Amino acid sequence: MTSSHRNEVVPHHRLVVNVLVLVYLVSGVCSLIDEVVWLRLLKLIIGNTVYASSVVVSVFMGGLAIGAALMGRICDRIRKPLRTYARIELAITISVLLSPTALRLADTFYVWLWRTFHPGQNVVIFWQALLSALVLLVPTVLMGSTLPLLARFVTSVEKETGPLVGRLYALNMLGAAAGTFLAGFVLIRTVGVMGTLYSAAVLNVGVACGGYLLHRMSNWRAAPDVGGATPRGCPGQAQGPAPTASRLGLALLACGFFLSGLASIGYELLWMRSIIHSIGTFTYVFSAVLTVYLVGNVIGTMIGSRLVRHVTNPAATYAAVLFVLGATGVGYLPWLDLYNYRLLPWPSGQPVISLLGIEVPVLMAQPMIRCTILFLIPSIVMGIGFPLMVQAWVNRVHRVGLSTGLAYSVNTIGAVLGGLLTGFVLMPLLGLQASIITLGLVVVWVAALMWLAFVFPATRKWTIRAVVPVAAMFVSVCAVQIPRELFVRTVALSGREFGHDIVAMREGINTTVSVHKDPRYGALYLYTSGRIVAGTSRGFRGDQKLLGHFPVLLNRYAQQTLSVGFGTGESTACLAMHEIEQIDCVEIAPEVVDFALDYFGELNLGDQLAESVNMIYMDARNYLHLTEQSYDVIMSDCTGMTHFAENGSLFARDYFEIARDRLNEHGMFMSWIDTYTTQGQAVMNSVLGTMTEVFPYVTLWYPTPEPAPFFVVVGSEQPQKISIQHIARELEKPAVKESLAKINMRDVIDVLSCYIADQDDLRRFVKQYATNTDDFPFIEFITTHERAGRTVERNFFQTVRSDSVYKHLDWTGVDETTRQQRRERLDRVRQVARYVQLSQTSNMYDESLAYCLEGLKVIPDFPALLIAKRSIEREMLRAGLQGLAAGDPDTALSIARVLLDKDPNAAAAWVLISQANRAQDRTPIAIEAARRAVRSAPYDMSVYHNLWSILLWADDPQGAQTVLNQAVEAFGSDARQGTPAPVDHLGF
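Predicted structure:
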């Protein structure tokens, strides 16, 4: 064969095509790894907002569209496509490796812009989005150009369009799914963010080399494109040329391609927002949703590639598939509601589950399993349409490369606009429920129009013509019947674990905010993305007050302060009580502040907020990075470091360093660390160890007078000297005094009782830890299901807690007599504080009670111990009453004996004895025990109710009335609100 003949003949290179498809699969792996890394890099620059996600998704999809469109126009003229493909992959590798450097260079411009011109946040976000888009556009355009180029090659070799392009697309999507899974579940947590990027680059070089070797193996040159692959005709066109493309047909196909892409990305974003209330916003949720989405597309594309071989009217078949896609959107929320409430409630408390004999951490497995159940079917439907879409377009245009490029680019442009429209228009205006139903109905009716247009010339049967339009009417009627508050039921799941009822909900761009109420006690709680962040209960009030007052109490120089996170606003209100010069507050979600003012006005500054606090609505890390403002105190009030994926970066060394650089000479950085959402000792060690790397001086504090499951860690570059005189002056301010008295802090000693340890103590305890950084985000990717809780607190109290507090005290201005008195009292309070802390962390009631009683021997009226003692007695009482309700009086008597062994005057024990003997018809013993309970706790109204109920049962109404009169005399008319048997409401 001569060279001239070789240019006109396309040899059969099936092996080359099969290997090329595998190479393209690896290319898909690299592309999605790059996308995941870019998203993380942009969140560090733009902030943990929807803008970062929108820029990455929009630029990624837009770049693919531009690349596909450009290559679609020229690929039919490229004579050596595989060599060109290898060069493109090499260019992708170089541009990806340069992207972090380019983003950092752009970041210097943002800082200069902010500090020089002080523009509004929207101006900075515009420039951040624009420059980031320009940086990422180069590699993404190159990525998008590869599909039409390879489609031209493989279809020229094999002489088929839909099936081959579908297979090529499917395996590339399979690679994309693998890349998403590897990046999100494996690579970042093992080799770091940049290590993940470098790993993808190495693979991409391998892809380029593979493309070049295949070029050398195939020795293929493209013939001039004189019609491309043989199109599949419509019915009645078994032979002969394909029909001439009508403008209406092409317009409808383009509209369908566009809407398919728009709905696909819109669904993906809405799915993500819909499940965070029941699963959480863990890092693995994002990776799970995207992985299932891509795997579903792969399965669907494989199905569509087979289906396209057997259909005679791919355009009409594509319209039917598009209709099913729209219908899945309309039916998604009813399916989610059915799943949440009826089908598969997730078993909580399991650290691992077994999948195919392999133990998998629940935090990784749970999102994958739930996302598969919820999203796999609609994702498959999305994938089925792609090969049908390409074949339908080729049948009318007859040029493979151009058809693939145009179809892919139109579909991708729809995806770009789908991300922007959903995030910035539909959700803010309509909310999640109306947004997903609206998207679904639009797709359903466009599909119905396409069905009519493409079926009409093929058949005269009205039953076939009308099937999709009639189905569209049925779906529309069903959509109208969906309850308007269906999604609110999903949000209400957030509080189901605690028995909380939903009061109000608002969907914002960055989060969904809701208010829930505890019907038992009337407490209100503020939730964001399905997690409690603040409330009116004693525990939350305590930490909000501590965070609000301690910045000023511990730092005598505090005048300029920054609070990260608003919550209910009580912390900023407490700061304002100290009459300092400046209070700035950074809050990423304006909806949080709106709900705080509407529902928690009694806790915050209310109408005075704008006068006293400078609210800054942006990402805290981004603000600190951009601003040149320095502070005396930066207080980071961020909960759920492992529950909220975005909060993990606020406990990273990089963030601590940014905050340190924004501190004045005597500045302090404070961070709240909760233990009820923290995964185990490893996370606590990581936070504290990372803090000691950045700050040479660190102290740890615990709310001893009002125990709660959290610590406050304080870092500084100067030795932390706590002024006794300064604290005393601040506590003399009436508002401060009244506020702190509600959490049992009435003087300097109560404040100092919160001290646990300093950097030397921590370094002795935290010997091994993983440094949490932006590059190696250890905390964010922790997989253990173990909660820190009582175990971690107990370790700190027993091992870390020391008397190093005395070297941090500044007694200037305090006379010697007062100093000695306070030193002696501090010794006694710290001795008692140890018992408070241990009683809070014991897993056995009798042990906790023993700690309380030992502490009360030192200070009999110590409030925290009295509260703890009553709480323990109440829990033991509840356990005994549950035994009685189950017909087991021996259990109640056994618990009573344990109580009496620790404290002969335990009122709860005598209540249990009275009720147990009542159950056994021992009237005299029951009455005497009930009277002993009254003598032991005459301050508690419930013991009177207990005696009252026993006397009524014993048929002594006169005695019962006498007891009721005594209760009314002691407690007022409230005592009359009891019931004949109020034992399950006893208030110990």
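Summary: The first strand starts at residue 352 and ends at 355.
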